[in-house]
C-alpha cells in the first residue's frame, strides 16, 4: 500500500472550502482532428479537444493561520523541464501573498533534488532536515513573504 493520499480523494472539500487554501492543475489541451466521411467524400471534421492534467500544486494552512503549507507539487514525467513546476510555484506564492500569509512552508525528500533546487531558486530557505528510520531525509523549507513583497 502506498502513502496516504486521502486529501486527493476529495480535492474540493480538502482544498477549496476555505478561501485561503486552493488546488491548481496544469493542463495540456490538445486539439485532435478527426476525419469525417460523408457520402463517399472525406474531409476534415470538427476537432475534439482533449485535456490532460500534467501538473498540480496545493496550498493548505498550517496550525498557525499566518503560515501556508505548499503540497502536492507534481509534474508528469513527460512534461518535466518545461517550466511547469516553476509556474505552479509562482502561482501558489502569488496566491499566498494575496491571502496575506506571512510565510510558506514545505517538506520534500532527498529523492526530489530538482524540486529542492527550484524551491531554492524561488528564495525558499532550507530550515532543517529530519531523518526517518535513520536514512530517509525529510527537508523542511520556508519562504518569508514579507521579503517577497518588497
Automatic annotation (TrEMBL):
PROSITE patterns noted in UniProt = GNAT
MF terms in GO: N-acetyltransferase activity
Q: Which domain of life is it from?
A: Eukaryota
Q: Where is the N-acetyltransferase domain?
A: 1-148
Q: Which InterPro entries match?
A: Acyl_CoA_acyltransferase, GNAT_dom, NAT_camello-type
Q: Does the keyword Transferase apply?
A: yes
Keywords, sorted A to Z: Transferase
Give a yes or no for keyword RNA-binding in this entry. no
* Name this protein carries in UniProt: N-acetyltransferase domain-containing protein
Amino acid at each position: 500500500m502506498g502513502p496516504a493520499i486521502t486529501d486527493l480523494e476529495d480535492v474540493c472539500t480538502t482544498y477549496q472550502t476555505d478561501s485561503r487554501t486552493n488546488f491548481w492543475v496544469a493542463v495540456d489541451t490538445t486539439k485532435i482532428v478527426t476525419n469525417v466521411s460523408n457520402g463517399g467524400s472525406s474531409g476534415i471534421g470538427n476537432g475534439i479537444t482533449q485535456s490532460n492534467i500534467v501538473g498540480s500544486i496545493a496550498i493548505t494552512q498550517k496550525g498557525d493561520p499566518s503560515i501556508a503549507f505548499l503540497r502536492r507539487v507534481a509534474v508528469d514525467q513527460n512534461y518535466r523541464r518545461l517550466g511547469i513546476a516553476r509556474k505552479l510555484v509562482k502561482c501558489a506564492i502569488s496566491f499566498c501573498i494575496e491571502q496575506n500569509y506571512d510565510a510558506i512552508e514545505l517538506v520534500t525528500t532527498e529523492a526530489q533534488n530538482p524540486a529542492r533546487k527550484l524551491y531554492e531558486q524561488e528564495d525558499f530557505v532550507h530550515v532543517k532536515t529530519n531523518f526517518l528510520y535513520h536514512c530517509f531525509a525529510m527537508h523542511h523549507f520556508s519562504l518569508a513573504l514579507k521579503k517577497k513583497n518588497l
